[in-house]
């Protein structure tokens, strides 16, 4: 049976409670070739824990934004554990995400689990309508337990996938996709590996889900279940981030963002047991596509987090322009306007997807698929341009700056402070801190979150183009054009214009 050490602990309320709840879990975590003793105290890992802790502190500071009253326990819990039951719930998720991006300047790692719960709520409901296996009630019991402790739940979807041209059952090595390796009356055992798992080591539980549409031959890969992070048979291998060892050097300037960072790791499952009560899909391969599509619909608009992180980068770019003495120059102002325009475009499409949300059969609300995909597709491009403009405004020092140790050196420190000064009344060290922050977000540790995660997280760009292509309703649009162009006769026009289906049917009929 899985035994989560944290279950012995009380409900988590503050960031400090959360950090304490992570201690002593005896996880098997490898980082830089070593088995880590206590992740909480590791200088490379700790910034990611601080970023996640901020989600608890925000819930205390601004409960209207980051907390809800649990329908299961009647007590206040994190909004990250809430299943949306109206449009306002969806919108508030986005507002909370932008705020947390602003407060941490990085990925705060909690949205995959939130979006997984929301997707699973409606998918288990519809699976039970067809198969009557009781998954929905099991999920509700699991959610109740998560609410009782106010836990962090990670969403483990992306398999390592091996040969991308082959489905799971045709892979030479079956472990390329997580699958059922053994079955007993009490539950199932799973093996395989999930890649790029955001915040997995900082979570209390993981929900394991299939990564793609599955066919009948892939039945043993159609498994959804929850496991505590310290379940027997799990190994974590920490993902390296650019410049990560700077946080082991002792200073706090060169890291750029000393306090906060993101986290990804590979999670390897070797015959990990999932008891029946935590299984939410077992062989229903025909619902894998629905799960993946609903999860990505929530998750692609969750990427408004990047607009909060973008606010920090725009602030850094404006600050360096000021420190360089050029804040009023027209092309500088115009570049800041362009960065803001791109950033708000991300936010605009994400929050519109939430405002255009609608009820599923289960009563849970889901956001608009088209706008969610458009939001994420913008995110695969716009942060790169915002980052380019930030580097433009920063000047070359963003990549050639001497180290903090040189700055504090008894012989050369004074020379650096003299020669690295910008506008006379600005502090040289402040200027270096801002330059390091821009480096951190566009080339260093948090470029993982601001750039590469923007590209691939919740699916690489082509995944959104496929979804947008499926929903773009060209027949309907062709009809509109033909009516306006006078090709369709007047008496047929009303019928044709109201003959809606797919995306536009839902948009115009709600
Ligand atoms: C920072 C970060 C955080 C993440 N966090 C999480 C997380 O918390 N949980 C989680 O489950 N996942 C997470 N992901 C995983 C993310 O969803 C995947 O990276 C994404 O789906 C792409 O998969 P991949 O990395 O295996 O790339 P690949 O699948 O190798 O894709 C590489 C390229 O090949 C193309 N390609 C791949 N397969 C095909 C095909 N069959 N036909 C045509 N083209 C193809 C893609 O479009 C892309 O251009 C995260 C990723 C990153 C980078
Ligand atoms: S990338 Fe954004 S949406 Fe995804 S977990 Fe991090 S903060 Fe949340």
Write a structural description.
- By secondary structure, this protein is α+β, with helices and mostly antiparallel strands.
- The protein has three domains: 10-295, Butyryl-CoA Dehydrogenase, subunit A, domain 2 (Beta Barrel), CATH 2.40.110; 301-469, Butyryl-CoA Dehydrogenase, subunit A, domain 3 (Up-down Bundle), CATH 1.20.140; 473-509, no CATH class.
- Helix content is 48%, strand content 13%.
- The chain contains 20 helices and 14 strands.
- Helix 9 (330-355) packs antiparallel against helix 11 (382-394).
- Iron/sulfur cluster binds at residues 107-109, 111-112, 198, 302-303, 305, 453, 457.
- Iron/sulfur cluster is lined by residues 107-109, 111-112, 198, 302-303, 305, 453, 457.
In percent, how much strand structure appears in the residues?
Answer: 5-15%
Helix content: 40-55%
Q: What is the CATH third-level topology name of the largest domain?
A: Butyryl-CoA Dehydrogenase, subunit A, domain 2
Unreliably modeled segments? none
Molecular shape: globular
Report the total helices: 20
Oligomer: single chain
Query: For the report, how would you describe the main beta sheet?
Result: 6 strands, mixed
What is the topological layout?
Elements: H1 15-21, E1 29-31, E2 34-35, H2 46-61, H3 63-66, E3 67-69, E4 76-78, H4 87-104, H5 111-131, H6 135-149, E5 153-156, E6 179-184, E7 187-198, E8 205-208, E9 223-228, E10 234-238, E11 264-275, E12 279-282, H7 288-302, H8 305-323, H9 330-355, E13 358-359, E14 365-366, H10 369-379, H11 382-394, H12 397-400, H13 404-407, H14 413-419, H15 428-442, H16 447-456, H17 461-471, H18 474-484, H19 490-498, H20 502-509
Parallel strand pairs: 1-10, 5-8
Antiparallel strand pairs: 1-2, 3-4, 6-7, 7-11, 8-9, 9-12, 10-11, 13-14
Helix pairs in contact: 1-2, 4-8, 4-9, 5-6, 5-7, 7-10, 8-9, 8-11, 8-15, 9-10, 9-11, 10-17, 11-15, 15-16, 18-19
Bound molecules: flavin-adenine dinucleotide (FAD) and iron/sulfur cluster (SF4).
Iron/sulfur cluster binds at residues 107-109, 111-112, 198, 302-303, 305, 453, 457.
């Amino acid at each position: 049976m899985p035994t989560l050490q944290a279950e012995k602990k009380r409900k988590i309320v503050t960031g400090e409670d959360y950090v304490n709840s992570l201690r002593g879990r005896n996880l098997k975590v490898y980082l830089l070739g070593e088995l880590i003793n206590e992740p909480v105290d590791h200088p490379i890992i700790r910034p990611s824990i601080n970023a996640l802790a901020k989600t608890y502190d925000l819930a205390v500071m601004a409960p209207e934004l980051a907390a809800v009253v649990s329908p299961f326990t009647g007590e206040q819990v994190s909004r990250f554990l809430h299943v949306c039951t109206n449009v306002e719930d969806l919108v508030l998720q986005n507002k909370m995400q932008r705020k947390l991006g602003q407060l941490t300047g990085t990925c705060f790692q909690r949205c995959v689990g939130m979006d997984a719960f929301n997707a699973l709520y409606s998918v288990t409901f519809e699976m039970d309508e067809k198969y009557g296996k009781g998954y929905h009630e099991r999920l509700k019991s699991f959610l109740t337990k998560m609410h009782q402790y106010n836990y962090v739940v990670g969403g483990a979807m992306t398999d390592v996938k091996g040969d991308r041209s082959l489905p799971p059952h045709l892979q030479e090595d079956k472990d390329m996709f997580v699958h059922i390796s053994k079955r007993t009356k009490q539950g199932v055992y799973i093996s395989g590996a999930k890649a790029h798992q955001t915040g997995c080591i900082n979570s209390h539980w993981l929900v394991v889900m299939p990564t793609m549409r599955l066919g009948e031959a892939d039945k043993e890969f159609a498994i959804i279940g929850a496991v505590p992070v310290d379940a027997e048979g799990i190994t974590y291998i920490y993902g390296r981030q650019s410049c990560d060892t700077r946080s082991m050097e002792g200073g706090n300037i060169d890291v750029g963002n000393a306090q906060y960072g993101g986290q990804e790791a590979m999670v390897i499952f070797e015959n990990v047991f999932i008891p029946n009560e935590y299984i939410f899909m077992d062989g229903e391969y025909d619902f894998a596509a629905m799960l993946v599509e609903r999860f990505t619909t929530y998750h692609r608009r969750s990427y408004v987090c990047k607009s909060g992180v973008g606010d920090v980068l725009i602030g850094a770019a404006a600050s360096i322009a000021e420190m360089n003495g050029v804040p009023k120059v027209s092309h500088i102002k115009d570049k800041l306007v362009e960065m803001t325009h791109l950033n708000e475009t991300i936010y605009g499409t994400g929050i519109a997807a939430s405002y255009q949300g609608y009820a599923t059969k289960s009563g849970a609300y889901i956001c608009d698929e088209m706008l969610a995909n458009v939001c994420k597709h913008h995110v695969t491009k716009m942060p790169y341009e915002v980052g380019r403009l930030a580097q433009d405004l920063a000047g070359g020092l963003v990549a050639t700056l001497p180290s903090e140790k040189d700055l504090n050196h008894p012989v050369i420190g004074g020379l650096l402070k003299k020669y690295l000064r910008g506008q006379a009344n600005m502090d040289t060290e402040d200027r270096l801190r801002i330059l390091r922050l821009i480096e951190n977000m566009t080339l260093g540790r948090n470029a993982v979150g601001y750039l590469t995660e923007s590209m691939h997280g919740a699916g690489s760009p082509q995944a959104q183009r496929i979804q947008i292509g499926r929903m773009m309703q060209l027949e309907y649009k062709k009809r509109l054009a033909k009516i306006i162009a006078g090709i369709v006769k007047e008496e047929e026009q009303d019928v044709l214009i109201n003959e809606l289906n797919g995306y536009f049917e839902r948009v115009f009929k709600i």
